[in-house]
Amino acid sequence: MNNLIQNEMMKLLAKKRLVIIGVIVGILVLMFTYAQYKQAEEQQEKLGTTDWRAALQQQIIDTQNRLSSNRMLDEWREQLEVGLKQQQYYLDHDINPSEPGAATFTRMFLENAIDLFIPLLIMIVASDLVSSENSQGTIKLLLTRPVKRWKILMSKYVTLLLSVSIIVAMTALLSYLLSGLVFGYQGWAAPVITGFGLNGADVDVSQVRLVEQWKFLLMDLGLVWLVAVVIGTLSFMLSVLVRSTPAGMGIMLAALISGAILNNMVSSWESAKYFFMVNLKLTTYISGSAPPIEGMTLLSSVITLLVWWLLALIVSFAAFTRKDVY
Question: How far apart are CA 204 and CA 198, in angstroms?
């Protein structure tokens, strides 16, 4: 098995996919770092101070102005009201929700990348792990080797898990190193609030507690890794079922984009909470943002994703071990 995994890793490295992904992440992190720097600079010029309390107070006023509009959908209004109460809580307790530093940037980057950007990166690796054997004409040689088929597929899946771990770690590391050039490398011990309870537009603060940012970041990384593994396994299943790599990537891309759209439209469609793409933004639960459908919790979303992961794994091995050789 070790030789098979080593062989698969060498094939993956030869394609330079991880290098390409690293370049993409690096470019995007630099773009977002510059955008956030310009935003902070513009805000300081507008307010005439570097005091974060003044900036947060201005955000509260802006949110109140938006809530005064009568043309807003009820679900958006509810999310804004939740955000407003959380901003007021931070201000009342003298806690900066955006403590400057690379650690804060990395946390926010991961939280915004968990449902689309990182899944897209994982898809680049996972979608052709098996289907590329068809396009290269090596599938017959692979299936007729004197090695059990499940071992061959398991070696590819372990390679996928290693790749997922490398991509998640590389994204976090590049975010920290590159953004730190502008914002500095401090902020690991900054307090972050977690434990907001939501009931519609009402915010329950009875379970709120302060967590050091490095602990919060570890929780974010664990949830990002879980989502990446689920998306990777689903892409892996498509790679087994669909002979064409572009077709498999197209199906997965359509599912991910539809999930991003559905998250803003499914508040009244309760059964949509069983779709994997509606459950990808796991970090919102620990940061206190409202879920796309009322009643969804971190536990229910994790269970839903694990069910999809298990089904995808079963289908992948069942289809690969019964695949015809011709």
Answer: 6
pTM: 0.86
User: Per residue in 99-115, pLDDT tens?
Assistant: 788 999 999 999 989 98
Partners of 254 in the β-ladder: none
C-beta of residue 96 within 8 angstroms of C-beta of residue 191: no
| Residue 46, Cβ density class (10 Å: 0-12 exposed, 13-18 middle, ≥19 buried) | exposed
**Cα distance between the two ends of the chain:** 26
Rounded CA-CA distance 116/107 in Å is: 16
Does residue 45 sit in helix, strand or coil?
A: helix
Rg (CA), the chain: 22
Asked whether 214 and 192 are in contact (CB, 8 A), the reply is no
For residues 79 and 161, the model is more confident at 161
Q: Is 11 helix (H, G, I), strand (E, B) or coil?
A: helix
DSSP state of 188: T
**Tens of pLDDT along 222-269?**
999 999 999 999 999 998 888 778 888 888 888 888 887 877 776 677
